[in-house]
Amino acid sequence: MPDVVVVESPAKAKTINKYLGRDFTVLASLGHVRDLPPKDGSVRPEEDFAMDWEAEERGERQVNEIARALRGARRLFLATDPDREGEAISWHVREMLARKGALKGLEVRRITFNEITKRAVQQALASPRDLDRALIDAYLARRALDYLVGFTLSPVLWRKLPGSRSAGRVQSVALRLICEREAEIEAFRPREYWTVEGRFLTPAGAPFTARLTHLDGRRLEQFDLPDEAAAMRAKAAVEAGAFSVASVERKRVRRNPPPPFTTSTLQQEASRKLGLGAQQTMRLAQQLYEGVDIGGDTVGLITYMRTDGVQMAREAMVAIRDHVKEAFGGDYLPPGPREYASRAKNAQEAHEAIRPTDVRNTPERVARFLDERQRRLYELIWKRAVASQMASAELDQTTVELADEADRTRLRATGSVIAFDGFLKLYREDLDDPTGAEDEEGRTLPPMAERDPLKTQEVTADQHFTQPPPRYSEASLVKKLEELGIGRPSTYASILQVLQDREYVRLERRRFVPEDRGRLVTAFLVAFFERYVDTGFTAALEEQLDDISGGRADWRAVMRAFWEEFRRAVDATRDLKISDVIEALDEELGPHFFPAREDGADPRACPACAAGRLGLKLGRQGAFIGCSNYPECRYTRPLAVPGAEGDTASALQEGPRELGTDPATGQAVTLRRGPYGLYLQLGEETEDEKGKKLKPRRASLPRDMDPEALDLDRALALLSLPRVIGLDPETGGEITAGIGRFGPYVRLGNTYQSLEPGDDVLTLGMNRAMDLLAKARAKVRLLGPHPADGAPVEVRKGRFGPFVQHGKTVASLPRDTDMEEVTLEQAVALLREKGKELAPRGRKGTKATAAKRGAARAAAAPAEGAEAPAPAARKRAPAVRAAAKPKPAARRGAKTTAAATRKKRPAAKSGGRRKGEG
User: What is the largest CA-CA distance in the chain?
Assistant: First the structure.
């Protein structure tokens, strides 16, 4: 029997299976196979942090499949991702298999590889190891921390701050950073300052520009020219002076290439240069890592993309250096390989940096096998890695000082010229820099020498105002979190997504803007749990987790120290009054909700009664603004307009925005706002020859698509959906991607699967589509052909439990029947005895359904000529009907059940995520 190898994804399993051949069976775990149940008591501090683990149906099914494959096998290789999370998944798989008795007589080993290439996989198999207990302990500590914070802190939030959502250990700190930056922007007051520049001519007649630096023998600071009057006096002094060259300083500087990408630097550059969000970047990188089809072979193009290491394998550096010499010449090759060390706080340096697996796979060579976004990301990774082993760039910088005859007024001119481009020939960090202010390269100064007389041509004085600090973008927030040592590279994307999913922040023009709900939560946590949203405390906790993974600390000891203090802080809020919460929040957020008015009037004065004072109030549905003169004055207003969106969405209230003209039809493409959100439309509504209205082609805008960044090409691509991605290798059927009633999806025949956050319906590739369809197929099990007509009989997982289906006939399985155990014969019998036709899809039912309803009404109506009921009987009729029919009672029961569910739901919401921190 072949040995068994377990990886995480079906795409990876398929690739590795090709490398290993018949001697191995490669199966996927589909990520985590079990997790902490989202309920109280899953982590028990009183039992030294004992944990209960629970497998979902999918995880149980995957482990059962692995157990079946192990029958007769000699070895099991756990080959999940080479990080802490991958180690945990391998541990979970082993533990579940052991409980099933599937590991008796088996050798279980752990293998890791940093790239999915045949050489790397074979090398990993040649050097297996045991599971790393320290990494598993670090995972357990991190998981327990996130769970306990979520399940302990979130209920406090719900009780003391109605309307709030869950809190988490790491994203609450990220939210605080966003809210504090917004407070800085609101408190910012612009300050005026002026600068003076002069345009001069050299003796040879060459022009250049210089800026005033000294006036009346004193060096000018930024605000020394605070207004127009001072600027005009400085301008007159320059115009009156006769200037010559006081000094010329030339020096050559070297600029070294940046290191290859880590997870966070890749997310930052992909955001800055490609406009990709962190989730999109990681999704595309995952596809490049797992492999793409190149000439019939599946090739992993990049190394593992979750890393904070900047070092590269020696053989990779040698290969890149050989490529640099061959492609650019020996001048572009430094004397020896460049070694890099991470500057990031808490960097583990456990894995290589992100680099191409084979430098010979240039972006030009593989471009035709990638979609546009994959190609651009791979090009970015490839160029950065290759440039990191190239020679330094050399720049000639020139600084010229100008002075008048008395040396009381001075100006300075600077210029920089690239003497040798070095790595800049391939990769520039400042390329596409939105500020355009990173470098002065290309600004040259004409030849000058000391004492050269200069001719003054024109002098200008320019007004400026200081600018507030910018809001965090995804890139700058990731950079800040990394600098502070908060979170891990693999968690940044999910942290940012959680903040948006909980509606604590929104992305506006690719910048994070805190919602009022987010600001309230942050103010509450800072007021009453300041220690646990402190960046220093969170970073120190990360260091302790790293100590656990390095075997330098015991995870239960770390948990005991944390839990003792955290429990005391939570207990201190038990007697906290709502009035105390309101007072703290009102003091903290008063300047935000009641900004100063230009006319000097009291911003808190009640507009309804004038006698009351506006303040923050808390109700059952959340926070609002109310009058202190309640109940005499009942004036209230919401904190923010519910459902408020960005500038584009607001502007569309007044009418559609035209994006351009479709070159194929000549019709206008417009972005519009409808009752269900933003959508695209091609042309306008028309009529045919019979006067029948013809609706124009329309397409919904996906929720995660930024309307500000939408252009004509992307709009036309959305209008052309669905699109064919490729053919299923097993059935030959078309795999398509489109947008339906419930959002973007991928489809194969009658199998649908919704896209996940970070997936782009326009660029979704074959590997990712197969991965998503594998999840959909996990909900469907083919039993075989029906004996009557040969059509397939399937067992499916539905909203109300498993059922069998043959064509349009369905039958529910008995309550205690496992869908994995149903046989074809049982399914055929069920369909014959209890089968019913699927109702046709439609908004208000079909004509047949309407006819049935009409017949029922007719049967219930009194026959023609029958005596009408008496008035008293008419009044009693509803009560009689309610007693006779079980439906209202059932509805009451359902309502009671729903209420009970809602009481339990908060605990379920606060559970941690599967991968990374909550």
Answer: 121
For 272, which DSSP code? I
Query: 265: exposed, middle or buried (C-beta count within 10 Å: 0-12, 13-18, 19+)?
Result: buried
283 three-class SS: helix
Ranges of residues in the chain whose predicted pLDDT is under 50: 346, 349, 431-440, 641-647, 649-650, 653-654, 841-918
> Helices in 395-508 by DSSP H: which ranges?
474-484, 492-501
- Report, as residue numbers or ranges, the catalytic residues: 304
In words, the CATH class of domain 263-391 is mainly alpha
pLDDT number for residue 877: 37
Could you write out the DSSP letters of every residue in 288-334?
A: HHH-EEETTEEE--B--S--------HHHHHHHHHHHHHHH-GGGS-
Burial of 372 (0-12, 13-18, 19+ CB in 10 A): exposed
Task: Name the token pair of 724.
Answer: 């064919």
Architecture of domain 192-256+394-465: Distorted Sandwich (2.70)
Question: Which CATH code, of 1.20.140.10, 1.10.3470.10, 3.30.460.40, 1.10.460.10, is assigned to 140-188+470-578?
Answer: 1.10.460.10
- Contact between 862 and 868 (Cβ < 8 Å): yes
Q: Which of 851, 913, 872, 3 is nearest to 490 (CA)?
A: 913
Question: For residue range 182-194, what is the model confidence (pLDDT) as tens digits?
Answer: 989 988 889 999 9
CA dihedral 6, 7, 8, 11 (to 10 degrees): -120
The predicted structure's pLDDT at residue 491? 79
Q: Output the CATH code of domain 3-131.
A: 3.40.50.140
Strand bridging mode 734-740 / 723-727? antiparallel
Give the pLDDT of residue 344: 56
The predicted pLDDT at position 350 comes to: 55
Name the nearest CA neighbour of 143 among 491, 502, 530.
Answer: 491
The model scores a pTM over 0.70: no
As a whole number of angstroms, the distance between CA 7 and CA 66 comes to: 11
745 by DSSP, 3-state: which?
Answer: strand
Instruction: Tell me the backbone φ, ψ of residue 279, rounded to 5 degrees.
Output: -65, -45
Phi/psi at 282 (nearest 5 deg)?
-70, -35
Q: What is the DSSP code (8-state) at residue 59?
A: H
Amino acid identity of 205? G
Say what the pLDDT of residue 93 is.
94
Residue by residue, DSSP assigns 61-107 as: HHHHHHHHHTTT-SEEEE---SSHHHHHHHHHHHHHHHHTTTTTT-E
Q: Give the type of residue at 563.
A: W
CB 173 within 8 Å of CB 518: no
Structure tokens at 145: 């921390």
* Of 398, 404, 440, 464, nearest in space to 214 by CA: 404
Could you give phi then psi for residue 719, rounded to 5 degrees?
-70, -20
The answer to whether 264 touches 492, Cβ cutoff 8 Å, is yes
**Per-residue pLDDT tens for 433-456?**
333 334 445 578 999 999 999 999
Equal fold, 3-131 vs 263-391: no
> In the chain, what are the domain boundaries?
3-131, 140-188+470-578, 192-256+394-465, 263-391, 779-839
Express as a percent the part of the chain with pLDDT over 90: 36
Ranges of H-type helices in 646-803: 647-651, 712-719, 766-777
Alpha-carbon gap, residue 544 to 48, rounded angstroms: 18
Q: Say what the pLDDT of residue 845 is.
A: 46
* Rounded to 5°, angle at Cα 268 from 266 and 269: 70
Q: How many other CB atoms sit within 10 Å of the CB of residue 551?
A: 13
